C-alpha cells in the first residue's frame, strides 16, 4: 500500500454566502459545489441537506468549493443537520480508500453513511394504550373488547395489547377511536446497556500467554504499530487479545474487533461477555434497521466502547478509536469484490496508521502477505506455540482414496467410517467437513446428459433438497427441480451428481442411525440466533455427528469433538486462483484445529486422491513453515503478490459485442514498460454473471511501480461503450 498518509490542515468553518464542496454518498467523481444561505454556518464534516436535481440528498461538507462558478449560480444548502459531524479521521479514511481502490469518493462515503436515518432525530415510538376511566356511552362491549380493556391496566403498544388479549389489532384501534382506550406517548430514549468492565479479572495464563498479553497491552497508547498474534488452533489467542482490549478501555478508548462472519460467532460473544460482564456492540447485516441506527449513533457519540463487526464496521464514525483487532486475518471474506473493491484487513491497517493507534492481526495460519510484512520488519510477530491448558494438537492421517475408495454412490471411505464408529461408541463427537453447500453441485439428465444451468450465469444450479429447490450461488436465482428433462422431455431422469453437505448427511444418517446428526452451513444457519442455538447444542452434546462447510472452521470450541473427517481434501486445490493452495491449507488447518481442544486427544483424517500434493503433505507432517517457504518461493519467482502488484479490470455488460469491443480497446491502450505486464483480455471464469457478459484484463507490475497512477492514465484513454462497465479491483483475491 504505497500511498502516502499526510496530516491535513485544521478544518475550516464557513458562514452565510460562502461556497462549499459537499460530498454526496453516490458514485460521483467528487464533491458538488453549493452555497450557504443567509443565517447558515457550517464546518467541515457537518452533514448537510442539499438539493440534487429533483430530490433532496444528505451529504458531508468536505471543504471549500472546488471551482470558480459564480456563487449566485450555486444552489443553496437547505439545512445543517443537528447531529455529530463526521470525524476528521473518517473523512481522511474515505479519501484514502477512494484513492487506493480508484473508486468514486462518493461510493466510499456511502459505506461510511450506511445508516442515513441515524443522522435524523430518532423517531418517536408508536403510542401505548391504557384503559380509560370509564367506557363511553353506547359502546357495546363484546367479549373481545372486554379482554382488551382488562389487559390495558398498564400502557401497552397496540400490537402487544392485541397479542395479550388474543384479538386483532383492529379491535384495539377501534376501542381507541371510540375513547375506551387512551393513548400514552412514550419517550424515544431506550435503556443503555452497561459498558464493558475492564476491571473484571481475566483467566489464568501460561507464561507464553502472559508474555504476549503484556506485549499487546504495551502497544495501547504507544502510537501506530502492527502486531501479528500467531498461535496454533486452541492456543487462546482470543483471551490474550482481550487483555489489550481491557488496556484500551482503561484508557477510555474505543475498540474495533473485526471477525470474518460476525453472524456466526456466538461463542466469541459469549467469551467477551464472560470477560467484560456485558456483550459488545455488534455490527452486521442481520441487525434490524432500528438496531443499526442505534449502534451507528452510539459509535458516533462515543457511547459504544467496543464494536465487533464484519468488514463494513471499519467505516463506522469512531470518535476515539484506540485499538483495532482483525481476527482470522487470513480469511478471504475480508475482501469485498463488488462495488468498492477493498480488503478490510489492509484497510484496517491504514485506518490504524491514520489514527496513530495499534492494530493486532490474529491467526493460526497467517496470510502470505502478512508474513512478508513480518520478514520485512514492518510488522511485529508474537507467537503462542502451544494449546491452552496442555491440550495436544490432533494426530493427522491421510486416507488414500485410490487404495481405499468409498463404496459406489458413497462418499465415506472405510477407514473414516470405522473412525466415526469408534468415536461415537466412545461417547465423543465427530465432524465431517465438506466445503460444498446443498445436496449436489450438479443435476443432469441420465438420458441426454442435459445439465441444469443458471440462465443468468455460467454456473450450474445447486440442488438444495431440504428446501426443495435448485439455486444459483452466484446470482441467487431459485427454481424447482423439473419433473421432465427440459431438453429431451424424459421423465424422472434428472439425477444429482456429486455430494454436498445435505447428501453427505443422508449417507451419515444411513450409516450411523443412532447418532444425532446436524448440518452446519451458511444457508442452513439463517440468523445469528440459529447459529447460537446450534453451537449451544454441540456444547451440551445434544449432537453426536456434525456435518459442515467452512463455517465450522471459524474459531468454534467443542470440548467433546475428537474426530474431524475431511471428506474431500482436494476440493479447492484445482483452478487458476494463485492463492488456491494457500487458502486450502489455511482452511483445512483451521478445520483440523476443531479436534481435541480439551482433555481428550483428537485426530484428523484427510480423504484425498492426491496424497503427494504439497498441501496434503504439509498438513500431515505439520510442517507449516516448509509449506509457506515453498509457496513464497514460487510466487517470488513469477513476481506474484505479495512480491509483485496485481490489478484486475473486469469489463461487463449485457451486450457481448460491446463488452468485447471495450475490452479490445483497453488492450490496445494497455500500459507498457519495464516491470509491467498486461494479461488478457480473456473471458472471466464466470464469463456470464447475473445477466452480464464479462471479460478480464490483469495488470501485473513490480512493487516499485505506482499502480494507481498507471491505472488512472490507462482508464483515461478508453471510453466504455454504452451499457458497459469497467470495474477496477486493486489487489484482487477472487479470479472468477
In short:
With 736 residues, this protein is an alpha/beta fold.
Structure description:
This protein has 736 residues and is an alpha/beta fold. It has 5 domains: 13-113, PriA, 3(prime) DNA-binding domain (GIY-YIG endonuclease); 128-183; 207-389, Rossmann fold, CATH 3.40.50.300; 391-436 and 499-632, Rossmann fold; 645-730, Ribosomal protein S10 (Alpha-Beta Plaits). The strands form 9 sheets. The protein has a 7-stranded parallel beta sheet with strand order 13-14-12-15-18-11-19, sandwiched between helices. Strands 20-30-29-21-28-27 form a 6-stranded parallel beta sheet, with helices on both faces. Helix 9 links the parallel strand 13 and strand 14. Helix 1 (88-101) packs across helix 10 and helix 15 runs parallel beside helix 16 (614-621). The two termini are 24 Å apart.
Number of domains: 5
Choose one word for the global shape: globular
Main sheet characteristics: 7 strands, parallel
Task: Look up the CATH topology of the largest domain.
Answer: Rossmann fold
Quickly name the level 1 CATH class of the largest domain: Alpha Beta
Low-pLDDT sequence parts: none
Strand content: 15-25%
**CATH homologous superfamily title of the largest domain:** P-loop containing nucleotide triphosphate hydrolases
Count of DSSP-assigned helices: 19
Q: Averaging pLDDT over every residue, what do you get?
A: 90
Radius of gyration: 29 Å
Regarding quaternary structure, what we see is single chain
Strand order of the largest sheet: 13-14-12-15-18-11-19
Tell me roughly what share of residues is in helical segments.
25-40%
